[in-house]
Specification:
This protein has about 850 residues and is α+β, with helices and mostly antiparallel strands. Helix 3 packs antiparallel against helix 4 and helix 6 runs antiparallel to helix 7 (about 805-820). Helices cover about 15% and strands about 25% of the residues. It has a 4-stranded antiparallel beta sheet with strand order 3-36-35-34, with no helix packed on it. It has 7 helices and 36 strands.
């Protein structure tokens, strides 16, 4: 039983009281919701350089929120200063883990004497294992020359000690030496525990037995550790590959003209490798000009347990499917009816690999009566495709629904495969959402399909048909104007007697007219993408992510829209955040102003800051969007999250949505059940924000218990440096303050002549970590406060230790802002005190 005492009158969302340990901790703030308290995640001293995440992206977070990865150039926690080579090829890799007494820090770096060069690749979903490329050394301490030869290795902990276990070589035997690693296998994806690793060969350094044609892609897999060769994935063999001298001898490729994981570079690789690694979805490519054996169009397959291949987008007939098709399915009569084969795009799968979603223009079932892009769900097992469903058929019980889905994009698939959210231009149901809005033919309509009930529901209209037509009209007029200008130039050339120039000009006019439909479609796609985050027939939304996030069970969807969605309290003129709940089929606005007394029932006009509306696009609220397209690591399902499994949302905005927020700075908020609360105000003395610093919001765990962010403010007594630190605003969290040293009397205030350095405990890194109190070696005397001039001199001295001119300039600028002589305040200037 948790003992609760009323210490600070609860918290912002009117909890009567919070756990004693939380309210008693120095990290507790009454304006935080959910009985949260600040916890320092990164060490108080990090060698003079703050901890970063990968290439301005949110860091990898374990599903339980107890572990998070970061990197830094400076060496601490047992790591020496290192060269640029790690996450994002920049610094050493560190794991921060929560313990019962504070956050601890561990360097994941391999010993430099044994591995002179190393590259961090990915981590397992729980961060207990990590995959590396390590240089091969014949003996310890050997200098490494160029070219370098790498092997893949797994870092794991056994018996309390970290070890690196070889997975397999990164280059085939006899490969041409490489300087920049251009001949090495590239990580395409992995199972959650890194027991299965799928690799892509993009530069045709093929392994023995691989008959892929020169210049085309190939796909391999390593299973377990201690391998000498990877195994081909895109094969039709009905048994594991176990050749003679080489494992891939006797492999029968589905396409000699290329194989890709999922539909990499085109649509998605989301769960293309199942969580266990037992199922791998791949596309066998059709390539014009390739003389090898290949399918007539790109086709989707599943390789199951490395021993069986199932055709997904051209499925073989099973007794179950025979009954569903009433004797014949559309794919069996495609060519007879004049329907040509169309390529399939992998859109995603459930985490267990049992359900897969793909899109195609090719009608595959009797109910698909047109050749527009449709979305299908297939249930896959070792027995083949046991069930095939046209997801984008819409509400088949609605006699007034339109025909032709014209699917524009699949935006999210829930981890369990129970819900798929997609955008289509067809009116697939006439039933409105709970806000009273309906689907519209020609609009960009957002739908959700429930795979358990086969039901379709309309979510929201992201762009109306009239808005889309206006974009087409304007783009057509602009291009026609350009063509008319070119035609006038042709006439001028002929009039001047320049026949050759005129004929060349006419050829250009012809080219422009032929390209007109494609150019107009491109303009429409770009405008749709800028407004909705959906690019029709998109290439993975720029290969990084899509501004949509669904809960693992698919109940909630978080998305961005610039439209004023009906019934959602939205009257802003810029994009806002919205949440959809499949249980009540209602869309609500997330990025709203706080009620005077936190309660979700207050009228919009009573909310703080005019309901949180803003006319500035720079101040618009932003969510974190998990990657969706290419090279997805095992941590992707639990990282870059803004949406908890219970529907709570964390987001960032420069707009002040609560009284303590700072307008124009990056504030972090939480939305929960109709109300918004402040997690961290952007009130640093020196605003954070350089090219290598990511957004302050680092993400939340799946439960929403942990919200990670960074700040240069000192929010707990343990944070004693001036560097930006990572914090966790944790529900029921907080650690005790450091124990104050006893007061000294008389000569004891002088302390001993020298203090012995305490020996680190077993497993300790030898440095103060997280919220753990540093050892006290002698009584402390409270120093006299420094003057502003002394503080400035001290800060400038510290800046001179920065690693680059740019970092030093940023540091000195911040020092002057923080400790420089105060300027006379303007009338009415100033703001409230610090936390």
């Amino acid at each position: 039983m948790v003992v609760r005492l009323r210490l600070a009158a609860g918290d912002a969302n009117q909890q009567a009281s919070c756990p004693f340990e939380t309210e008693a901790s120095p990290g507790f703030r009454s304006f935080l919701p959910d009985c949260r308290a600040y916890e320092l995640v990164t060490p108080p001293y990090t060698g003079g350089q703050y901890v970063l995440s990968e290439l301005e992206a949110p860091p990898p977070v374990s599903a339980d929120g107890e572990h998070v990865l970061g990197f830094a150039l400076a060496g601490f926690a047992g790591a020496e200063n290192v060269e640029e080579a790690a996450l994002g090829d920049y610094g050493a890799v560190y794991e921060f883990s929560r313990t019962s007494s504070g956050w601890s820090t561990e360097s994941l770096e391999p010993p430099a004497s044994q591995y002179a060069r190393r590259h961090f690749e990915v981590a397992s979903s729980d961060l207990s294992r990590s995959l590396w490329k390590l240089v091969v050394q014949s003996k310890e301490g050997e200098e490494v020359g160029v070219p370098e030869v790498f092997t893949f290795a797994i870092r794991e902990v056994a018996g309390g000690q970290a070890r690196f276990v070889g997975v397999g070589p990164a280059e085939p035997p006899g490969a041409q030496p490489s300087v920049g690693g251009e001949h090495e296998l590239q990580i395409a994806g992995a199972s959650r525990d890194l027991s299965h690793i799928v690799l892509a060969s993009e530069f045709n350094e093929l392994w023995p037995g691989d008959t892929t044609r020169e210049g085309y892609e190939s796909l391999y897999e390593y299973a377990g550790v201690g391998n000498q060769e990877p195994v081909l994935v895109g094969v039709s063999n009905a048994e594991p590959l176990e050749g003679g001298a080489h494992r891939n001898e006797g492999a029968k490729l589905e396409s000699e003209c290329g194989t890709r994981l999922g539909s990499a570079h085109e649509a998605s690789t989301y769960n293309a490798i199942s969580a266990s690694g037992a199922v791998v979805y791949f596309t066998a490519l059709h390539a014009e000009g390739c003389s090898g054996s290949q399918p007539t169009v790109n086709q989707l397959y599943a390789r199951i347990t490395g021993s069986q291949t199932v055709a997904v987008s051209e499925p073989a007939m099973t007794p179950t499917r025979e009954a569903e098709c009433s004797g014949v399915c559309r794919e069996d009569e495609n060519e007879e009816n004049g329907h040509t084969r169309s390529p399939a795009l992998f859109e995603g799968a459930s985490e267990d690999g049992a359900k897969v979603f793909f899109s195609t223009d090719q009608p595959l079932l009797n109910g698909d009566k047109d050749s527009t892009r449709d979305l299908y769900e297939a249930e896959v097992s070792a027995a083949g495709v046991t069930r095939l469903v046209q997801v984008s058929a819409g509400d088949e019980t609605d006699p007034n629904r339109g025909s032709g889905a014209e699917v524009a994009s699949v935006v999210r698939i829930s981890e369990d495969g129970s819900h798929v959210y997609y955008v289509a231009r067809g009116a697939l149901t006439t039933t409105p959402n709970a806000n009273g809005e309906r689907a519209e033919a020609g609009a960009y309509n957002l739908y959700v399909y429930d795979t358990n009930t086969d039901g379709t529901a309309f979510v929201a209209n992201l762009m109306t048909a009239a808005e889309a037509q206006a974009v087409v009209t304007q783009a057509t007029a602009e291009r026609n104007s350009a063509i008319e200008g070119e035609e006038a130039e042709c006439k001028r050339l002929f009039a001047e007697g320049n026949t050759a120039g005129g004929e060349q000009c006419e050829a250009e006019v012809k080219r422009l007219r032929e390209a007109l439909p494609g150019e107009v479609a491109k303009s429409l796609a770009e405008e749709v993408g800028s407004r909705t985050g959906v690019t029709p027939n998109d290439n993975g939304y720029n290969g990084t992510g899509r501004p949509f996030e669904a809960t693992p069970d698919g109940r909630f969807l978080l998305f961005t829209s610039a439209r004023q969605l009906t019934g959602s309290e939205d009257t802003s003129t810029v994009g806002q955040l919205f949440e959809y709940d499949t249980q009540d089929e209602r869309v609500v606005r997330v990025s709203i102003g706080q009620c005077p007394a936190p309660a979700p029932a207050c009228a919009p006009s009573k909310r703080f800051n005019a309901d949180g509306n803003t006319t500035s696009g720079e101040n618009r609220p932003m969510m974190l969007a998990p990657k969706y397209a290419n090279n997805l690591p095992p941590t992707e399902a639990s990282s870059a999250l803004s949406l908890s499994e219970a529907g709570a949302v964390v987001f960032r905005s420069q707009d002040a949505l609560t009284p303590l927020a700072i307008a124009g700075r990056e504030n972090i908020y939480e939305y929960r059940e109709g109300e918004v609360f402040l997690i961290s105000p952007g009130d640093e003395a020196a605003p954070l924000g350089t090219v290598d610093i990511p957004p302050r919001l680092l993400g939340t765990d799946e439960s929403g218990r942990d919200v990670f962010f960074f700040t240069s403010d000192s929010l707990v007594p343990q944070d004693v440096d001036t560097q930006a630190s990572w914090y966790d605003a944790r529900e029921g969290g907080g650690f005790p303050a450091p124990v104050a040293p006893p007061a000294c009397v008389g000569d004891t205030c002088q302390g001993p002549l020298s203090a012995p350095t305490p020996a680190p405990s077993a497993g300790s890194t030898g440095v103060a970590e997280g919220n753990l109190a540093p050892p006290v070696s002698k009584p402390a005397v409270k120093p006299r406060p420094l003057t502003r001039a002394q503080e400035l001199a001290k800060a400038l001295k510290a800046c001179r230790a920065e690693h680059s001119r740019h970092q030093r300039a940023v540091c000195e600028s911040g020092a002057h802002k923080r400790y420089g002589l105060p300027k006379a305040k303007k009338a009415g200037a100033g703001r409230g005190g610090k936390r």
